[in-house]
Amino acid sequence: MQMSDNFSPASFPSLEKALKHFFGYDDFRLNQRPVIEEVLKNQDVLVVMPTGGGKSLCYQLPALLKLGVTVVVSPLIALMQDQVEALQDNGISATFLNSSLNSEESRSRQEALMEGRIKLLYVAPERLLSETFSPFFQLLSEKVGLAAFAIDEAHCVSEWGHDFRPEYRQLDTLRRNYPNVPIVALTATATERVRQDIVHQLALRQPSVYVSSFNRQNLYYEVQPKGKQAYSQLLQTLKPFEGAGIIYCLSRRRVDELAFRLQQDGISALPYHAGLSDSERTQNQIRFIRDDVRVMVATIAFGMGIDKPDVRFVIHYDLPRNLESYYQESGRAGRDGEPAHCAIFFGYGDVATVDYLINQKPDPQEQRIARQQLRQMIDYAESTVCRRKIQLSYFGEEFPGQCNTCDNCVSPPPLEDWTIEAQKFLSCVARCRERFGMTHIIDVLRGSRKQKVIRLGHDQLSTYGIGKDKSIDEWRMLGRSLLHQGLVEETTDGYSVLKLNAGSWQVLKRQLSVQVAISDRLKGQSTPVETSSTEMSPEAMLLLGRLRSLRKRLADEQNIPPYIVFPEASLRLMAQQRPLTLDGFSRISGVGNRKLNQYGQIFTDEIQSFCQENGLPMEAEPLAREVAPLRSKTTPTNTHFVTLKLFEQGLTPSEIAAERDLRLGTIIDHLARLLEASHPIDLDRLVSTERQKTICQAIDKVGAGSLRTIREHLGDTYDYNEIRLVRALWEQDS
Ligand code: ADP
Ligand code: ZN
What we know:
Layout: H1 15-23, H2 32-40, E1 45-48, H3 56-65, E2 69-73, H4 77-89, E3 94-97, H5 103-114, E4 120-123, H6 125-128, H7 134-143, E5 146-151, H8 166-169, H9 172-177, E6 183-187, H10 192-201, E7 208-211, E8 219-225, H11 230-238, E9 244-249, H12 252-264, E10 269-272, H13 278-289, E11 295-299, E12 311-316, H14 323-330, E13 340-346, H15 348-359, H16 364-382, H17 387-394, H18 407-410, E14 415-417, H19 419-431, H20 438-445, H21 451-455, H22 472-484, E15 489-490, E16 498-499, H23 502-508, E17 515-517, H24 538-558, H25 562-565, H26 568-577, H27 582-586, H28 593-613, H29 638-648, H30 653-660, H31 664-676, H32 689-702, H33 707-714, H34 720-733
Parallel strand pairs: 1-6, 1-7, 2-4, 2-5, 3-4, 5-6, 8-13, 9-11, 9-12, 10-11, 12-13
Antiparallel strand pairs: 14-17, 15-16
Helix pairs in contact: 2-3, 15-16, 19-20, 19-23, 20-22, 24-26, 24-28, 29-31, 30-31, 31-34, 32-33, 32-34
Zinc ion is lined by residues 386-388, 403, 406, 408-409.
């Protein structure tokens, strides 16, 4: 076992310091810290977090602090590249292996892995488990060591999930072949059934299970009645939104039509659905991710491929299929944690369409379930209680309501006392022996002559016809309100039978009064809403625009999505705080070490010229006054100095490695760090001046950000060690 490593935990006094260093963030999000601690202790863990909760960090940070390679299994080949680029842009050595690479690329990446130069390997399951790959992988585990397996989108192992992938089933061989390597499984799936399946299928060993709340606090939810002028209503809704968004429609035809109309109206929009060719879809997706186009119009079935953290709005122009899919689809908004908006355009015409489609289903059980799901969706749309409360209770989570970020909480409908009506309703449920659903109960209350009522003899009940004074819709509103308030239950077997509970009896015994919110929304009034909860001064807004353009330019130059350069939240902070020094800049959340080096100067320059042009104060803000070391790299510690001493005695890096029983890469890294910290190292002994010059020129050209990029520019005759060293010198000079 080696005693030291480039990224030994000892280099960081705390996990928070490591977090800031690599990712630029100051605090962990909920559950991240305990999960990371478990992974560092080699425990199996199951992490359940909603989209945008910050799952990746749970294995990425430990990967950097542990010896060996962390292997990330991910089903979405298209997304691997973005994830790896994002890591590399933070100066973290990550790579991926999948079918998109040619054999030369694969070979050189495998080489880098074998030399211990890679901390995170992203790989598709079929590759990882293939027979051709396993000898290499075995060798890798022996020579370099495996730190952990991270199984992303772990619900894919489960047939109960919404995205079952047979190749995930074979992942249990990992446990058998590498019994000592801990497994971290991660998913955003909310159901208990799937969670159990994951633990079982992956053969997790007494895993700690961390389930985060599914409350997405940064999302605003609203439902708008879909009027006759739905399209102009949509334009009106889009108007105040900044940034990119997704609009979901039910069919391909509607997607194409809508995308076309939006284009005609000067809104940059593209379609995305199964009828497009793979390459068209990929093209549209890339243009969306890179902010070349603002709006993606997509079919609900095809949302899975759209992955972009800074989506600012998701509008369901047609009715979502059910609450679970609505949660997942609307959840694609605001993954970066910034405010985002989710709206449903709810029209009874769509209900009729969906109902028609359900009737076409051959299996009666399937029909029943689909109808119940539709019912729940309608209930959600028509409801007058906090939208969050309904969504979260669907996932078995209790939420008190009054979220302040949904239409019902922001402009609550007026309350009325409906205790008498509630008593009538509940006693009718009791008289019908708790064996019927809402429709039948309302029929009895309103004295319907329907066959079913007569046949059952329910026209003889004492509650028959006692509710003629209220319309069907009013009774429904009451019934739903009772359900939401927990004053009656409904079975979930597809039949939606109403059952009394303790609360119902309190109402019946006059121990509890019932308040009902009277909805006016269905009459066509919608609530105006704020787009963003963050207040910004006019100057900040202006500067934000400038910084966004700068980000876009830098991203285009490197051929990466803008959000990889900096997330929206960081830009906002820059626009508000206007840091003028590198030190001030380094304090912005999202600015880690690599980002500081790579972008600090150019961004502070931009902020400076903005201040000049607008006559804003130029002195650095007070926080940034004290002089901090320009590059806050890890300061060299004892182990670095031992290396230095041996080097000064004339030993070569390989000799030092042998002497100290460390890897060559570690020694090179020591020397590089010493160089960065301005210790005099005679680099000419290691790299000829000619080569130094060429490498420096390459860095000038492609930037210091990624060793891989520099090497790709230089070609194979240059190795990473010399590039690493020369870059250290380059950074010292610049
Ligand atoms: P998930 O995979 O759970 O959907 P990600 O791992 O993509 O979520 O993280 C979502 C966003 O949150 C990313 O932009 C990520 O950089 C950011 N993030 C993660 N952890 C933190 C943190 N501790 N502080 C601030 N931002 C964070
Ligand atoms: Zn609410």
